[in-house]
C-alpha cells in the first residue's frame, strides 16, 4: 500500500472511529448515569421501608407503660431520632452534620434519609436513617459497560478497516494502472535511448561537425529521457531489488554525476559552485546512491532560473544542494514528497523524484529536509 493510500485510509479511520466511538461513549455515559440512579433509587426505597419499620416500633413503644424502652435498629441500617427543634434524642449513630433541607442525600459514600414522624412518638419528630452505599451493583454496571465499549470498539474498527479498503480501492486501482503504464513505458524506452546516447557520443568524438548546439539539445533530451527511464525502472523494481551495500566514495560519484548533468547545466548557463570534501565514504548500494544524487541534482537544475546559482556541498556528515530557483509555496512543501505530486506543473516529469529520495533516505535512516521560498531559493539537505 502506497503512503498516499495509507494516509487516506488513516484519515478515514480517524474520522469514522472518533465520531462513532464518541457517539457510543456519550450514549454509554448517559446509560451509566441512568442505571446508577435506578440502583441508588432502589437502595433509597430500602431506607424508606426501614424508616417505616422503625416508626411502627416507636408507635408500639409509645403505647407500652412501665417497661424499659429499647430503641429499635437493624443492621446494616443506622438511625437516630430528633425533636421538632432538630435536637438529638437517641439513636444508633449521631451524624455530625445533617442537610435538613433535603429529604435524602449522599455523603461520604453513605445514603441519608430524613423521615418525618407524624404524629410524634416519644417526643420524636424526625427520623434519620442511613446506610452505606452498596457499590457492587455499580461496579458490575461499570464492568458491563466497559466490556460493551471494548466489543463495540473492536467491531467498529474491523468494520472501519473493511469500509476504508472500499474507500481507497478506486485510488489503488488508479495507482496500479499508472504503474502498469510506467512498466510498459520503461520497457519500450530502453533501446532507443541507449542508441541515441551512444551515437551522440560517437559523433562528438569522431566528427567535428556543424550543428553542435543542435547536438547538445539532442544530448540533453536524451539524458533527460535516460534519467526518467532509470527512475521508472527503479520504482518498478525497488520492492524486490537486492541491495549490495558497499563502502562507496560519494565524493567521486558526485563529481561523475555533476559531469553527467554538465551539458544541461551549461545549456541553462547556471553558476555552478562545488564545495565537495574528498574521500567521503558512505555505506550504501551503488544504484541507490546514483538515484539519490541524480534526483536531487536534476530537480535543482530543472527548477532553477536561467543564469541562476547552483551550489553543491558535501562533507562526511551532510550533502546539501542549493539553487536560486523558482522555489516552492509553503502550502505545497508538505505534499511535495508524495509520488506523482508536482508543485510546479510548468516543468516536465512524473513527480516521482522526491518520492524516490524519500524512499532511499528511509531505507538508510538518513535525514531529509527541504527549505524553500517562492521565487527565491530551494535547499535540499541529506544528513548521513
CATH architecture field of the largest domain: 2-Layer Sandwich
Query: How would you sum up the global shape?
Result: rod-shaped
What does the radius of gyration come to?
Answer: 41 Å
- Provide the low-confidence segments as ranges: none
* SSE succession: HEEEEEHHEHHEEHEEHHEE
Q: Could you give the distance between the termini?
A: 27 Å
How many domains would you count in the coordinates? Answer: 2
Q: Report the CATH topology name of the largest domain.
A: Heat Shock Protein 90
Fill in the keyword field for this structure.
5-stranded mixed beta sheet; 12 strands; Heat Shock Protein 90; 8 helices; single chain; alpha+beta; 2 domains; 54% helix; 5-stranded antiparallel beta sheet; 384 residues
Description:
This protein is α+β, with helices and mostly antiparallel strands. The protein has 2 domains: 3-134, no CATH class; 243-383, Histidine kinase-like ATPase, C-terminal domain (Heat Shock Protein 90), CATH 3.30.565.10. It has helices spanning 3-62, 136-206, 212-237, 250-260, 262-267, 286-302, 330-333, 353-364; strands spanning 78-82, 88-91, 104-107, 110-121, 124-132, 245-249, 271-276, 281-285, 309-314, 318-323, 367-373, 377-383. A 5-stranded antiparallel β-sheet has the order 2-1-5-4-3, covered by helices on one side. It has a 5-stranded mixed β-sheet with strand order 7-9-10-12-11, covered by helices on one side. A hairpin with a 3-residue loop joins β11 (367-373) and β12. α6 (286-302) packs antiparallel against α8. The chain is rod-shaped and about 140 Å long. The relative contact order is 0.08. The model has no long low-confidence stretch (mean pLDDT 81).
